[in-house]
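QA checklist item 7 of 12: single-chain prediction sanity check.
[x] sequence parsed
[x] length recorded as 144
[x] structure emitted
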Amino acid sequence: MVIAIIGILAAVALPALFKNINNSKMAKLKSELNAFKSSSMVYYTENNRLPINKNEMSENMEEMPKRTPFTVNVRNKGYNIIPVYKKDSKELERIDIGMEVSENAISRKYFEKDEELKKVWKCVTTTPNESNIYGVYVSIYSPN
């Protein structure tokens, strides 16, 4: 009888626990993205262009995040700064910040259904493969 009650409590509590853990990871991610964006805009103001790598981006940050909040079962635990240039031009259009996300359904579901990430950050989820391990991209655009 006691085991049945514990089983029922676990079945009710575990989904809520995982939801809260993922909510806190998403909040941390958004905080780090805001730090990236702020640093990028300061860099843009000072240099009239977006930063193209972690060194340039970190110039205006107290501390560059070393790991993404979603680091379980992934090969690359950090953020990847990817400069994206306008087609047929050397003009920098935006910076994509790539991060590898595990194929954990909970993690991917949060990225795919988060409206703020879609609208504000232009978040794109892709299926990682051998040539592209980054399953999620968010973009920081030039302020023109």
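[x] summary fact logged: Strands lie at 79-85, 92-99, 124-125, 136-141.
[ ] second reviewer sign-off
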